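Re: that chain you flagged

S.,

Sorry for the slow reply, it's been a week of failed gels. I finally had a moment to sit down with the sequence you sent. For the record, here it is as I used it:
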Amino acid sequence: MTGSTPDVLSESEVLSRLRSKRGQTGYRAMFSSWLGGIVTDPALMQIPLDDHLVHRGHGVFDTCTLSDGRLYRLGIHVDRLLQSASLARIEHSWTKEDIIQMVVDTASKTGIRDGAVRYWLSVGPGGFSPSPRECPEACFYCVIFDPMPLGVTDSDPLSAGIPEVTVRDTPMKPQLLATIKSNNYLLNVLTHMEAIDLGGTFGILVDDDGYVAESCVLNAVFITKDHTLRTPPFDGILFGTTVRRVMDLASEVLIEEGLISSVDQSPVLASDVSGDQVTEMFLCGGDTHLYPVVSWDGLAVGDGKVGPIAKRLLELLEGEAFGQLLGNPTDFIDVNYKD
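Prediction finished late last night. Pasting the structure tokens below so you have them in one place:
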């Protein structure tokens, strides 16, 4: 439209253009409390422009995995969503059970048994000021879509591993924002972009005292020379659901198998990783995403190859989520598919 006056579009023209823009997206269903229902046409999966989620980032979100018709670990993710909403001072009337039911109902309309789930809780639409007082009601949105990779590498990370770099020019989030899973992810995006510019993948954030914090969207885990699985404390970083499950699986399975000797959550110096104190490093998140790090700032981590602990943990995570291994029954919620 450059150089010409834009037309005022009719309703049918808007719908036609939205559908041409969306194409085949893999978005299966969306629930909107603002609309009071579910839509299955990707062109109609919209939220109001004046929702403070959009122009102020005053909203929180979380995820889970749809696997073989079951929602994996939805409950623990909703716990974190509600904690984030409380810290973000988002007032709403939904209980944990209400939110779970809205997600289950959305999944039931998708026609798929395997997918990704993402949902948001915002102060809602109402204007463009910073004040949520102009918003008459909080809103909840949920989208179910086809599984997709994070899109960070062309090769299989479990076979080749990924290179990583220290991100220095993008600042870490202040503690409050780091511990809320909010819709404000600008620093996360810039962390990732700086990492790519430097030849890394997600980027590793290191605090002013030289201790590892986290990656742009993943928690960091290390295997030390004395066979300890160690991850940084959650002070000042996201309370990761996947890394917590990794620690549980390590305690329940890996110690018994003799692959590690202990599990520990304590500060990790970045200098120990580049030295000889760490034999493996990996990043994890999103229930089943695990990325072995084989180099950091150009130096090999351990022997520079994907290690046995990363391979075994990914096998356990995927096996539990996708049904090959027996998981905790309370971690699964069945979806009642309806016509």
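What I noticed first: Residues 157-321 form a domain with the D-amino Acid Aminotransferase; Chain A, domain 2 fold (CATH 3.20.10.10).

Talk soon,
D.
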